[in-house]
Amino acid sequence: MQWAERVRAYVRMHGAGYTLHRAGEMLAARVLLRDEWRFRREKASKRELAVQRAHPFPDVRISVVVPVFNTRPKFLRALADSLLAQTHGAWEACLYDGGSTSAETRKALEAIAARDSRFHIAFGAENAGISGNTNRAIKMATGEYIALCDHDDVLAPDVLWRIAEAIDAHHPDVLYTDEDKLTAHGAIHVDAHRKPDFCPDNLRSGNYICHLSVIRRTLLDAIGGLRPAFDGSQDHDLLLRACERADGVIHIPRVLYHWRTLRGSMSHTKLAVCLDAAARAVEESMRRNGFPGTCWVEDGVLRLRYNVGDFTVAALRLTRDASAADVNRLAADSSADMLLFLWGDTAEPDADGLREMMMYAQRPDVCAVSPLVADARNRVLHAGYDILPDGTVRSRNRGLPVSAGGWHGMNRTSYNVTAVSPMCFLVRRDAFVPLAEGNSLAVDLAQWCMARMQDGMRHVYTPHCVVKADAESAFEGFRVKVPAGWYDPCATGSKRA
């Protein structure tokens, strides 16, 4: 019944045609085992694993903490097997059982403890909930870094070695990897989640970091661990607080954590509870960062609304043959607090949409803000740019219906992007610096966006402001200069690699 209601809700939101299209895509991916074949191609070879074992990081001690409650023995054994297969040897696993009523779970934990002295098991008299049980597992830990792991998931054999390598090189406070899902029986890898580097606006829109996340112990203690009041989205709340205070957040762009898809998990059975907890966590984060407002759940996604200051905005129209010189001239001639650039026949945003853009543009860490630019058929023309390794610039989600979710639902949430389209963008006057001139407008603007990111600024896309453009945009598929080894830090999915 729950599955059927989700399908009906999806049809109501996106229409029958797009629902069938997405169902076909998902079925094809499962039948053709696309994620499974890519996983096999990309996973570490036996030779790579041997090289890792020959180059250890003995001074990097990682504590893997696991809250347990009535876990099936076969899942506990699979997790233990994946820990014993690690190429990094300086680890311990702290498993805290929160009063399991299953004798089989207790028996399995005792058997695991007998396999290796690095397994530490504790049995509690009662279930303290996911946050309480995790906090008690953390108290058992002695490592400098804490890795948060679910009781029924599996680690890739090189995950702790790659975490240790990054710690040894960069000494960050927070690290995370990419992940995928395992079918319930554990045989097939599906739904790979290739994440961007740290993007704070993505994190406020949803917990894209998730697994595997690793936090320095001193930071974890300083922020007070997990908070039971946010159970359901306790990891989202924890990561918001940790990343706000972190001295360095490192992303390891490899699928190294395998999340078992089980119908009994809280995210499956109590989605509304999880979303409510996430909204409360994000609203607190907004206040902590000096931009209070509200956060609520709308059609299954988190919506943010910062309080907006009193700013003047100038709408500056760019002709179809405009160049960077025209952008610079219009900016220099305006005295407004914020500059809204519109190319060609792109429509101006309405009052609510403009406010949506302004609430991001007012932040001192934000440079350019892009709306969703849609064509006459209500399909996405521009939703921020991805810049591929060869420098090719492509609009994210191009061609999708405006209401469609896209990759992991991101077409319906705000996120950070590396570059914005000339068709419509908003920038604060005090964040604007002149564009370098000499190429096409699209190239010069994309290069400008990349340079501003190197200066520590961020760009934001919001789908909650939609502007229409009657003509198809030519700003697609062009190239910019990128350094050797470039990858887009904000890109996701197949564009990550």
What's the rounded overall pLDDT mean? Answer: 91
Q: Examine the secondary-structure arrangement and name the CATH architecture of the largest domain.
A: Alpha-Beta Complex
Number of helices: 16
Number of strands: 20
Relative helix content: 25-40%
> How is the biggest beta sheet arranged?
9 strands, mixed
Give the overall silhouette.
Answer: elongated
CATH level 1 class label of the largest domain = Alpha Beta
What's the N-to-C terminus distance? 38 Å
Return the structural class: alpha/beta
Write structural notes for this entry.
The strands form four sheets. Strands 1, 2, 3, 4, 5, 6, 7, 8 and 9 form a nine-stranded mixed β-sheet that branches. Strands 12, 13, 14, 15, 18, 19 and 20 form a seven-stranded mixed β-sheet that branches. The protein has a two-stranded antiparallel sheet with strand order 10-11. α5 (73-84) runs parallel beside α6 and α11 (234-245) runs parallel beside α13 (271-288). The longest helix has 18 residues, at 271-288. By secondary structure, the chain is α/β, with parallel strands linked by helices. It is elongated and about 75 Å long. The protein has three domains: 2-32, no CATH class; 38-288, Alpha-Beta Complex (Spore Coat Polysaccharide Biosynthesis Protein SpsA, Chain A), CATH 3.90.550.10; 313-496, Spore Coat Polysaccharide Biosynthesis Protein SpsA, Chain A (Alpha-Beta Complex), CATH 3.90.550. It is built from 16 helices and 20 strands. 36% of the residues lie in helices and 24% in strands. β6 (174-182) and β7 form a beta hairpin.
